[in-house]
Design brief:
By secondary structure, this protein is of the alpha/beta class. It is 51% helix and 13% strand. The chain has two domains: 62 residues; 245 residues, TIM Barrel (Alpha-Beta Barrel). It is an enzyme of class 1 (oxidoreductase). It catalyses: L-proline + a quinone = (S)-1-pyrroline-5-carboxylate + a quinol + H(+). Its cofactor is FAD. Its EC number is 1.5.5.2.
């Protein structure tokens, strides 16, 4: 019941004003979102780079209703690529894009999203960096992977995200474990039906390990997207077992979560990439994360109290 309420709240300007002004909420948002402006996010990039970390930047804005908004999101990413190029941060920072922000859910969305994201991928290559296509709910997987395949024909470094809780993901891992492929493996955060996804946390974890084994044994570049200490340890063990050097895989965690662990992995010589969301649509992002799995509410508030 709580999920639909939070989704409705995400579309309410009046509730947004209340949430934005609430003293308890704002520090939580500030912790997990790197500002509303591009210059604020770039300051965070420089700070993390100075601490030996890499980043992936997400300009918030996936909840769009018309093609004009998709163009604005495209332009925001083009501005981001220009900033990365000007500040010579292409080696430290890549970009994560949700194809819904480029129009995937609109009429003719597949072609529209491909048309809008292509210049961003082109600009990223010119800036010395790349793009990873975030994965959303299960209805978008086929379209997202088809767009990935088209982009990789010209830009083979383009990455993708796979979610272990979907039944299909082991097959997708086999398909994307080839040379040059970049895959971020996550457990999955959307509320999916039992017809397409594991519902039990233990089954999701088991699926994550099975998928990670496939990626680590393959010829691609695995990106371990997890805050779970067990998955981090398993990732280290699988990398060792498959003879992977530190430069041949990486860990990824969200901005503001388990920062002490992020720094520990860097100190041990691992590649650590921090997922940084920014933009004026922080409210919608924040509420949707809670709506996807209402237990996130307790997680966010608990994380606020224990920054490490």
């Amino acid at each position: 019941m709580l999920g639909p309420v939070l989704l409705a709240a995400a579309r309410s300007d009046s509730i947004r004003r209340i949430v934005a002004a609430t003293p308890v909420t704002r520090p939580v948002v500030d912790r997990f979102v790197a500002g509303e402006r591009l210059d604020e996010s770039m300051a965070v990039v420089r700070e993390l780079a100075a601490r030996g970390m890499e980043v992936t930047l997400d300009h918030l804005g996936e909840d769009i209703t018309d093609p004009a908004e998709a163009l604005r999101n495209r332009d925001a990413y083009l501005q981001l690529t220009e900033a990365l190029k000007e500040q010579d941060l292409g080696e430290r920072a890549e970009m994560s894009v949700k194809l819904s922000a480029f129009g995937q859910a609109l009429p003719g969305g597949h072609e529209l999203a491909l048309k809008n994201v292509t210049p961003v991928v082109e600009a990223a290559a010119e800036a010395g960096t790349t793009v990873t296509l975030d994965m959303e709910d299960h209805t978008t997987v086929d379209s997202t992977l088809a767009i990935l395949a088209e982009l990789r024909e010209r830009f083979p470094q383009t990455g993708a995200v796979l979610q272990s809780y979907l039944f299909r993901t082991e097959d997708d891992c086999h398909a994307l474990a080839g040379e040059g492929s970049r895959v971020r493996l996550v457990k999955g955060a959307y509320k999916e039906p039992a017809t397409v996804a594991f519902q039990d946390k233990r089954e999701v974890d088991k699926a994550y390990v099975r998928c990670l084994k496939i990626l680590m044994a393959g010829d691609g570049y695995p990106m371990i997207g997890s805050h779970d200490p067990r998955m981090v340890a398993i990732g280290q063990e699988l990398a060792h077992r498959n003879g992977r050097k530190p430069a041949e895989f990486e860990f990824q965690m969200l901005y503001g979560i388990r920062e002490t662990e992020q720094q520990r992995l860097v100190a041990e010589g691992h590649r650590m990439r921090v997922y940084i969301p920014y933009g004026t649509d922080w409210y919608g992002y924040f509420m949707r994360r809670l709506a996807e799995r209402p237990a996130n509410l307790a997680f966010f508030l608990r994380s606020l109290a224990t920054r490490g």
